[in-house]
Amino acid sequence: MTLFPADNRYDSMIYNRCGQSGLKLPAISLGLWHSFGHTDRYENARDLLRCAFNLGVTHFDLANNYGPPYGSAEETFGNILKKDFKSYRDELIISSKAGYDMWPGPYGNWGSKKYLVASLDQSLKRMGIDYVDIFYHHRPDSETPLEETMGTLDLIVRQGKALYVGLSNYNSDQTREAVKILQSLGTPCLIHQPVYNMFDRWIEDELLDTLNEAGIGCIVFSPLAQGLLTEKYLERIPEDSRAVKDGRFLKPEDITREKRTKISLLSEIACRREQTLAQMALAWIFRLKGITSVLVGASKVEQIEENINTLERLKFTQDELTEIENILRQEDS
Ligand code: NDP
Q1: 270: CB partners within 8 A, 6+ apart
Q2: Ligand 1 pocket test, candidate residues 285, 303, 308, most atoms within 8 A of CB
Q3: Which CATH class is domain 18-227+285-313?
Q4: How many angstroms separate the alpha carbon of residue 187 from the centre of ligand 1?
Q5: Distance from residue 114's CA to the centre of ligand 1 (Å)
Q6: Half-sphere exposure (CA, 13 Å, Cβ side) for 165?
Q7: What are the b/e assignments for 54-74, b being 16+ CB within 10 Å?
Q8: Would you say 246 and 33 are in contact if contact means Cβ atoms under 8 Å apart?
């Protein structure tokens, strides 16, 4: 059995400053969206967390509704925290979020003060902790005044229930407005959490510039497009993959012939670089200025090990970047 926690856990991870804040985050963080619900195997969840921590991952990302059922990922995390990480709370950055559907009725969704305060209280209880390190508003709410939502993030920090606050899924204009309000309240926005990967590049248009100008960190979610940017779907859809186990978000019909062609061509470049496609897809994200961390998910310990090994080869030649660009820009027929 591997020793836990490993004495050398801080030897090879890269820690990046989060925007212009005092906080550093690991270049690779672990998200608990999948694999940590009550429907998942507890022992596997525990192994994933132990493996990640042993390899220098200090940041674990949750949300009120991760599971299934909703809330169960926080419960699983709380149980493991109590067992394995009790004396290491100060070595961890734990985040949670609220903004999506959580409980029935008008107060269990979106961005009101009523919802956010109650939701964070529930999250803290489920995880058995006094505070989260980062609390996010999970998505913009066009009906609640932004002043109310941002005012609540400020309140939560002043109450000591979160150390920092962040935004997720806000576009560039919404981010600018929210950041201004937070600034005026004296609680700066620490970080933004958008989706970004080879198949979804929307942050390149404007958001990343906005974040860099404002000195805000950026942690990108679904960097492997939920597992598409690996070799696993090249030939068939494996039984133990997300597309089969939980077809809600990555649907088998999303794995098109065009996607498979691109994945296969990308995989050839990765092979020449002596990397797996997953590793190349993660490394490629760091070519952008202002990326603090990539937030991966995992169903197996080996995936975490493979993904963290990415850090051994982050650099690309100009020719490789051009070749990748040409593949990604090929029109789907
Ligand atoms: P990824 O794109 O990293 O996909 C992770 C999945 O890909 C794994 O569960 C596994 O699926 C597969 N995988 C990972 N590594 C490998 C590998 N090396 N080889 C083969 N397969 C691999 O990220 P997620 O979509 O899971 O998102 C990551 C985190 O981002 C979430 O946990 C959550 O914290 C956050 N998130 C935030 C959102 C937001 O709105 N703010 C929305 C979505 C996610 P399998 O083995 O089961 O096929």
Answers
A1: 276, 277, 279, 280
A2: 303
A3: alpha beta
A4: 30
A5: 30
A6: 30
A7: bbbbbbbbbbbbbbeebbbbb
A8: no
Please report the pLDDT score of residue 247 as a whole number: 80
Question: Which atom of ligand 1 has the smallest separation from the CA of 306?
Answer: 18
List the chain domain ranges. Answer: 18-227+285-313
Would the pTM of this model clear 0.85, i.e. be above it? yes
Q: Within 13 A of 314's CA, how many CA atoms are on the CB side?
A: 12
Tokens of 65: 């509704």
The DSSP annotation for 88-115 comes to GGGG-EEEEEE-S--SSSTTSSTT-HHH
- Average pLDDT along the chain: 97
Share of the chain above pLDDT 70, in %: 99
17: which 2 tokens?
């400053």
Average pLDDT, integer, range 120-140: 98
Distance between Cα 282 and ligand 1 center (Å): 12
In 3D space, the residue among 146, 198, 135 whose CA is nearest the CA of residue 171 turns out to be 146
Q: Which atom of ligand 1 lies at the shortest distance from residue 241's CA?
A: 48
Report whether pLDDT(43) > 80: yes
As a whole-number percent, the residues of the chain with pLDDT over 90 amount to 96
DSSP secondary structure string for all residues of 113-142:
HHHHHHHHHHHHHHHT-S-EEEEEE-S--S
Q: What separation in Å is there between the alpha carbon of 196 and the centre of ligand 1?
A: 12
Tell me which residues have their CB closer than 6 angstroms to ligand 1: 31-34, 61, 138, 168-169, 193, 221-227, 230, 232, 241-242, 278, 295-299, 303, 306-307
Map residue 251 onto helix, strand or coil.
coil
**Distance from the alpha carbon of residue 118 to the mean position of ligand 1, in angstroms:** 27
Statement: residue 16 has pLDDT above 90: yes
| Ligand 1 atom index nearest CA of 279 | 18
CA of 198 to the centre of ligand 1 (A): 14
